[in-house]
Amino acid sequence: MTQPRKYEAISDDLDTAPDIYETPDLTDDTSTLPASSAPRPSSAGSSYEDASEGELGSGISRTRLHPDRAREQFFSNSVDAREVDFSDRVSTKRKSYRTSSRRRRKGEADDEDGEFSDEDESFEKKLARLRREVEDVKAEYDQRNQGEELAEGAQGNGASTGGGTDNIAQLSRMLDELHRAHRDRARSNAPLAERLGRDFDAVKVTDQTSSASQDTSTKHTKFTIEYAPNYEQSHALAKAADLDSRLALLEKYIGRSASSVPGAEDTNLAKPILPALESLEQQLTTLSTSSPFSLDAIARKVHEALQEAERLDDLRKQSRSSTQESAARGGSGRGGPSRPDSSGNQDGEESSDQGSKINALYGTLPTIENLAPLLPSVLDRLHTLRAVHVNAARASESLDAVEARQQEVAEDIRRWREGLEKVEQAMKGGEGVMAGNLKAIEGWVKGLEDRMKRIDQ
């Protein structure tokens, strides 16, 4: 039995021939590159404006481009992107930039050097521009008013409105007041600016240095991701330097005296205010409470201190000479067989150790001498900071006590208020009772009067 064919239901007109795809042969004048859309360079003998109908009909536009007109579309826009950080750092505070635009006046189309934004104008330029515009409005209003008067005269109607004149006069007065106020403010601020300039001459170099560093940091911004183990230390040093500069500026504004530390003038050190006040107080106390006997006692003490210093100097010289002699003796008696020579060797070793220590100390003397001018000021600063911290702790304790006292007073006030409210309620209740009693007594009195009248009748 034969099986039915699979495609019997398909009509006989189906094309069963194989599909053949042919590509045309390449020729020399045929290019497979896409047509370029770039404009051709202009030549001296060709003009794109005089395009023929054949070129326009072929779909190619050869009209001239006008970059000046295209540029004029963006002259009125101004974008202020100063101090704006476009990075994606998480720690950076987002700050958007501002855009502003204004319509250009007639006659500014070809002026490329003019100002295209109101934000770049100064106060004086804005006033001058507003005055010019007000004058233009006045002239235009006068011309329009003359035309309206002529038209109304022709129609026989003499009514005219003065609202525009009043508005223009009000604008003129406002501009005059602004100009006068700005001029008076400039005159009044001149002495203050001069005085402030004299006061801040000392810190001008610091401000310039900080501004220059800020400018360089804004101009040359670099982002580096690296491991820096000494970042915290440098950050702490920067904080300490900032605190030191702030303390020096505060002391300068308070009005401290010049530093009395030797060598401080060379290192540009600043003496803190608290030690200066303490020394000044001690000097004033000495001057106010001194007597000839006390001055003599102080002079004797100073003389004794000088003698002790001289004695110490002599002892130091003697000890130096003795160490040198012992070292020389140990070198000459070296190699002896006797027992005292061994003890001498021990003494020589001890003296050599002491000599090495003394030499090490003498080696550090230049460093100590260089640091000597710095130590008093550093100690004064440390004492000042300790006093500031102590005062801050006391102030915080006193503030806590004041806050606690305020809470107690607030609680007492609340209790007094509650008591006063209760007393007021009791007084109101007593007033109501008294009013009722008065009414009852009045009724009784009226009844007695009526009875007395009846008895009299």
TrEMBL record:
<dbReference type="GO" id="GO:0005869">
    <property type="term" value="C:dynactin complex"/>
</dbReference>
<feature type="compositionally biased region" description="Low complexity">
    <location>
        <begin position="29"/>
        <end position="47"/>
    </location>
</feature>
<feature type="compositionally biased region" description="Basic residues">
    <location>
        <begin position="92"/>
        <end position="106"/>
    </location>
</feature>
<feature type="region of interest" description="Disordered">
    <location>
        <begin position="139"/>
        <end position="167"/>
    </location>
</feature>
<feature type="region of interest" description="Disordered">
    <location>
        <begin position="310"/>
        <end position="357"/>
    </location>
</feature>
<keyword id="KW-0963">Cytoplasm</keyword>
<feature type="compositionally biased region" description="Acidic residues">
    <location>
        <begin position="109"/>
        <end position="122"/>
    </location>
</feature>
<protein>
    <recommendedName>
        <fullName>Dynactin subunit</fullName>
    </recommendedName>
</protein>
<feature type="region of interest" description="Disordered">
    <location>
        <begin position="1"/>
        <end position="125"/>
    </location>
</feature>
<dbReference type="InterPro" id="IPR028133">
    <property type="entry name" value="Dynamitin"/>
</dbReference>
<feature type="compositionally biased region" description="Basic and acidic residues">
    <location>
        <begin position="80"/>
        <end position="91"/>
    </location>
</feature>
<dbReference type="GO" id="GO:0007017">
    <property type="term" value="P:microtubule-based process"/>
</dbReference>
<dbReference type="GO" id="GO:0005737">
    <property type="term" value="C:cytoplasm"/>
</dbReference>
<feature type="compositionally biased region" description="Gly residues">
    <location>
        <begin position="155"/>
        <end position="165"/>
    </location>
</feature>
<dbReference type="Pfam" id="PF04912">
    <property type="entry name" value="Dynamitin"/>
</dbReference>
